[in-house]
Amino acid sequence: MNKPLIAIPMGDPAGIGPEIVVKAIADEQVQKTAVCLVIGDQRALTHAMQVCQLSLRIHPVTSPDQAVDEAGVLNLIDLANADPEVFTIGQVSALCGQAAFEYIAKSIELANAKKVDAVATTPINKESLRAGNVPFIGHTEIFAELTQTQDPLTMFEVHGMRVFFLSRHVSLRKACDMVKKDRIIDYVKRCTEALRRLGISSGTMAIAGLNPHSGEHGLFGDEEVTDVEPAVLELKAQGYDVVGPVGADSVFHLALQGHYHSVLSLYHDQGHIATKTLDFERTIAITNGLPFLRTSVDHGTAFNIAGKGIASAVSMVEAILLAAKYAPYFQSDSSQVSGLL
What we know:
Blueprint: E1 5-9, H1 17-25, H2 28-33, E2 35-40, H3 42-52, E3 57-60, E4 73-78, H4 94-112, E5 118-121, H5 126-131, H6 139-147, E6 153-158, E7 161-165, H7 172-177, H8 181-197, E8 205-208, H9 223-237, E9 242-246, H10 251-256, E10 262-265, H11 268-278, E11 284-288, E12 293-296, H12 314-326
Helix pairs in contact: 1-3, 1-12, 4-6, 8-9
């Protein structure tokens, strides 16, 4: 198979996941670039095709090697765990939370076994996960646990701009406390290795400032003086191409212009706001540090429009295309994914 094989867990059945999946499978660019294998429920996907007015032929398979590369075909591993007759679209559901977890777990099983080249994930709902007694708050935590990965790195990519995050789902107060010299050094090294694994071996990484104007040398906030600048000096002495702190009001613009190949955002919303304001639908998350490549849409289940057939599949399409773009760098045998780029 010349095209990369991308596993796609269907997401929360009560959300827009099934709809954006069928729309993405029908997308001409996706069909030209990748072979997709959906893990989900045939009944939910059939309903999604109906509301989206799409006609795809579902091809049930039991293993990835049975997937076919044909336009208009949706390859499916059917877990048969989400009958639309027994849950309400657009509402939190324990059944759907558990089902969404099972789709993810299956995709991880396949990727761990190297039966697929990458995983592109769809939206899940944290409340539904909790209602379904799933002991994880979100995708990253599930992937970390099921792959035994310590502190995976999240990277956003949009229009060629790449953003890493020093912290993720913690309070802003705690995030500020995590801006420490040793943590910054560790993250820059790990981010650099993650970029190399994606085939990006040259360029400068910028560390965003934490305080307004990077604290103006301690006039209002001293984290830049006590931790960021010392970290940058030590990293440079070790041969790393890194600069900072660069004011957060300009660093993302400069990265978009090509001055930096990546930015280390010092807290969750700093980088999220920059990327999503630039292009919400095309901001794609990549989880680095896993044994395999995982990309994801970066939006939620959109319960308010689920079941109406109006959800945009742009982000899902971009997640699949980005998975296909980087998948070759994760393969030990490049012949399996030749002819992609």
